[in-house]
User: Which sequence fits this backbone?
């Protein structure tokens, strides 16, 4: 059930009305209703995978309770933690990485033995959002183990916390100390929160359907056959995909945050204008914030962080980025993408300690960070290393091929570049004022505010891209 579908719109309206009219009077009934709605939402893709998310939720709930009891008896609960890690990561690795590791092993064995080794992959369905809800459940267990939070005794609230439908499929990845308490206590309808939530949904849909999906038309055309393109189409495809990815994923997060607000829940921001970062260290504090902080707290710091000298710090950074790349997908290209970004972070912040000062230097640094990021995304977007090399081999300003052969006419190209420029200007203004677009719109006079509402809605209806490509969100595959 996609956020940008009529089906989700109907589901959201029905769920919202029932939530505030019938089920919000009692906390227990409300959480049962949210759990049922979330399982219906998830089961819409494949109901056969519901036992998986329920099983992972049960493992994490029981693990948290068991670790807490052992710690009360003076034990550390490490055995239960290891079991929870094995079960959670085991499920994630089987569904997401079994074929990848088996194929890689077969290829390595064939290379070393000198004999070809055929591999027939298993027909394994990748559960939507498994990387997200697995990490959310693991953070709960780890926080209890490190005594950062106490276990909940309400299984329904916990199961609803893991499966909360606004952020179930692609985050933000929430911590139990922030989201789980919100399932306790009565909620009162708040008109201001409701209109804020609806506006965030509308802006997210605009970013996804009007801009990101429009850019995807050219990106998909070029990347479907990278070896047959060269020159300008390659350059534009690289640029467009950088913005497509940002807009697509930030739009999902924005719609998730807005949807949660409709039900009285607050989720964390996941993006903070990352393309205005002037260093790689700053970029990763602005991009996919909840995942970055997850890796920082549960992998980088346990590895030793920066407490064991520069060499160990560099190694820890590279491990985190390699794992982060693998988290994004079962492909060596994702690992390369992660390592490239880790390498530039290490070089600019750990080795040369680059700290741009002055307006001109910051502008140059911002363009440098964005350029390296955009080029690294070639590995993110292509399925194989050979495809990535085909893109890079066609890189440059030479070549007679025009953009007209890449699925877009001149008016579409002009509109796409205009929308990117408008977005960049808006991001700069927001960065300078530290006032979000939503807060600006909501502060407008009534007539102007409703004019904006109508224009956004009409833009989505008349300028939105429908069915020209795969309109699902990019991060659904992770």
Assistant:
């Amino acid at each position: 059930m996609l956020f940008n579908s009529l089906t989700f719109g109907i589901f959201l309206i029905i769920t919202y009305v029932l939530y505030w009219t019938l089920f919000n009077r009692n906390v227990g009934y409300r959480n049962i209703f949210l759990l049922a709605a979330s399982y219906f939402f998830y089961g819409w893709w494949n109901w056969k995978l519901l036992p998986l998310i329920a099983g992972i939720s049960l493992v994490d709930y029981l693990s948290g309770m068991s670790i807490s009891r052992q710690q009360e008896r003076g034990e550390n609960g490490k055995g239960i933690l290891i079991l929870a890690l094995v079960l959670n990561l085991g499920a994630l690795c089987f569904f997401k990485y079994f074929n990848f590791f088996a194929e890689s092993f077969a290829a390595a064995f064939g290379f070393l033995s000198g004999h070809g080794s055929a591999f027939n992959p298993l027909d394994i369905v990748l559960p939507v959002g498994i990387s997200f809800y697995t990490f959310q459940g693991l953070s709960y267990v780890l926080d209890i183990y490190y005594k950062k939070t106490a276990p909940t005794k309400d299984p329904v609230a916990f199961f609803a916390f893991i499966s909360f439908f606004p952020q179930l499929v692609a985050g933000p990845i929430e911590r139990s100390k922030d989201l789980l308490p919100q399932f306790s206590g009565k909620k009162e309808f708040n008109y201001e929160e409701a209109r804020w939530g609806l506006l965030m949904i509308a802006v997210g849909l605009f970013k996804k359907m009007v801009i990101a999906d429009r850019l995807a038309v050219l990106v998909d055309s070029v990347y479907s056959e990278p070896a047959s393109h060269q020159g300008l189409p390659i350059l534009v495809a690289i640029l467009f995909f950088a913005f497509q990815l940002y807009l697509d994923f930030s739009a999902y997060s924005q719609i998730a945050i807005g949807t949660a607000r409709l039900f009285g829940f607050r989720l964390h921001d996941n993006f903070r204008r990352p393309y205005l970062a002037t260093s790689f260290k700053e970029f990763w504090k602005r991009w996919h914030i909840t995942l970055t902080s997850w890796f920082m707290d549960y992998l980088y710091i346990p590895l030793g962080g920066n407490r064991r000298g520069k060499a160990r710090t560099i190694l820890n950074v590279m491990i985190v980025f390699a794992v982060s790349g693998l988290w994004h997908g079962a492909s060596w290209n994702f690992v390369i993408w992660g390592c490239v970004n880790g390498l530039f972070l290490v070089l600019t912040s750990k080795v040369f300690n680059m700290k741009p000062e002055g307006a001109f230097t910051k502008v140059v640094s911002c363009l440098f960070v964005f350029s390296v990021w955009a080029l690294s995304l070639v590995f993110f977007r292509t399925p194989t290393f050979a495809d990535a090399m085909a893109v890079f081999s066609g890189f440059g300003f030479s070549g007679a091929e025009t953009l007209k052969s890449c699925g877009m006419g001149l008016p579409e190209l002009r509109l796409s570049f205009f929308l990117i420029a408008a977005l960049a200007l808006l991001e700069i203004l927001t960065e300078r004022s530290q006032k979000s677009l939503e807060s600006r719109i909501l502060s407008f006079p009534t007539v102007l505010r409703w004019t904006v509402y109508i224009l956004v809605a009409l833009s989505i209806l008349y300028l939105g891209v429908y069915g020209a490509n795969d309109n699902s969100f990019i991060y659904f595959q992770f």
The chain is about 70% helix and 0% strand. Residues 6-189 form one domain. The radius of gyration is 23 Å. The mean pLDDT is 87.
